[in-house]
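User: Predict structure, ligand 4'-deoxy-4'-aminopyridoxal-5'-phosphate.
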Amino acid sequence: MEHKIDAYNNILELIGNTPLVKLNRIADQLTGNFYAKVEAFNPGHSSKDRIAAYIIEEAERKGILTEGSTIIETTSGNTGFSIAMVSIIKGYECILAVSSKSSKDKIDMLRSMGAKVYICPAHVSADDPRSYYQVAKRLHEETKGSIYINQYFNELNIEAHYKTTGPEIWKQTNGNITHLIACSGTGGTISGTARYLKEQNPKVKVIGVDAFGSVLKKYHETKEFDANEIYPYRIEGLGKNLIPSATDFELIDKFIKVTDEESAHTAREISKTEGLFVGYTSGAVMQAVKQLDAEGEFGKNSNIVVIFPDHGSRYMSKVYSDDWMNDQGFFDTKNVEEAQQIEFIK
Ligand code: PMP
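Assistant: Predicted complex:
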């Protein structure tokens, strides 16, 4: 006789239904009530588990994928990790074409999750056959029964959040949410969540967080793609140098930009005040909240939900490294006391 054991069948059953956590000390001086949707509780430690599982399962429903099929994507970031994770459980091959700029740590992490990684030269243009876009496209065309996730241009990216993140937040706030604030990279998270929330209550205000060096905010305001807006920045995962069709700009009320430096300090502050070890873009979204608060955006009865997309452990050699912070000049303007406190006993 089989004993009744209270266990999940596999880790995919743990995707989604992430907790909403009240923010306390970091929001002390702000007007309103602040809640974070903590996406690091997903088994792959980021919001990207949702789209990886959803897009792959949609392809299964359509009969495109069969056992041993191949999933292809062009990212060394969270999406790559989530796709690799889902592929393991479902028995697919995972191929990731990534830029030669990607850190060794990231590539090792993806390979540890069984992905086959193609490292493509970073300096070539997007239409060069060696670029990671073209390599992914070619592999997709050559591999029968494969799917190309193409997260920036895939409507299913929005749909994944429309079906999961949106309803979860609506339920968790009992419909009392007034503001949604989220970083916009592909735009899937903010667009899908906003679409659901605005269908329930069109008054929910949706604010996207963008980087200096990205085209999204200006495009939203003017419908113009301005290449002069583009320059390098350090935060990974928000902002873009192209207009992703996975962003529904109509659903976003406004964009706000944040700096690399303030976002990094704010990420460290969240960890130290809330005990929530979060990634760089969680710092960015909270930095945006501080700026919006200073502009008088919120009232005392506002219920603001922010999305914290991933976990701090992915940023040990960046935001959580004092050496890295110092190299960026991020400790020049702020008190160095903020550096990690270490005492060496001799
Ligand atoms: N933060 C991080 C760390 C991410 O990896 C991403 C995804 N690019 C985002 C925020 C933004 O999410 P989305 O792509 O759904 O806009």
